[in-house]
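REQUEST FORM: STRUCTURE PREDICTION
Request ID: SP-0412
Submitted by: Lab K.M.
Chain count: 1
Length (residues): 284
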Amino acid sequence: MNKEAAVYRRKKIVKYLLIHLAIIAFVVVCVYPLLRILSVSMRPGDKLISTDLSLIPAGAAFDAYVRLLKETLFLRWLWNSLLITVATSFIGVSLASTAAYAFSRFRFAGKKGGLILLLSTQMIPAGMLILPLFLMIMKLGLMNTYLGMIIAYSVSSLPFSIWILKGYYDTIPRSLEEAALVDGTSQVGAFWRIILPLSTPALSIAFLFNFTTAWNEYLVARVVLFSSKQYTWTLGLFELQGQYITQWGMFAAGSMLVTIPVLIVFLYSSKWLISGLTLGSVKG
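STATUS: Completed
RESULT:
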């Protein structure tokens, strides 16, 4: 019996160590590139092209950050990206939440076909959507505008958001809505007071998807925007790459700074990702 217990403990310890080693290896693989970019951003100008692998370079300084903020429109690019991304995220999640509720709760002609159509749009390569989006925005007279970018991004992210939210709505018992309707609440009231509070994890995932997709997008922005003052950060940093020279220090500094908004949004919304389905539920 003692032998079996000892063998069991040994296996448990080995399993525990292997799991934690795998987690540590995964973290290193994810974090190391960021540390390398941070290292490049702090290198003096005469040491940008170097074989030194130390994470903290000799003579580390923040000159690249200062030059980026003073010599370029980086803050303007960052503001443009933030404005477009936040608007896209809220509009996309708002439209997707109502559309997903209709697909989840109501019966209507073309429901299955609509869901299949939404799914099939995700199989189309992003590059093939550039021309239709360009023509749509051009005919609306929204070239080189924030609104044109917001419309393009919102339309592109809707199918995935609808599928995520529709699947989550399907897991919420209809009895919760029925109880609210019996108490005199309207269908809209039941959706607003019952379904949405219970769907905060899925709403957070949809919001993060919309945010990160719009924040990192380049192709649509390259087609729609042509004024440097309207550029998003992806276009702005690309301008640092010249025909004969690339400002690698400033490029790395910008790459580090643009991760801050995404990190803040993720940390703020993470508490909603772990919330359960018990909020507002009924007993019995």
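NOTES: The radius of gyration is 25 Å.
Reviewed by: T.R.
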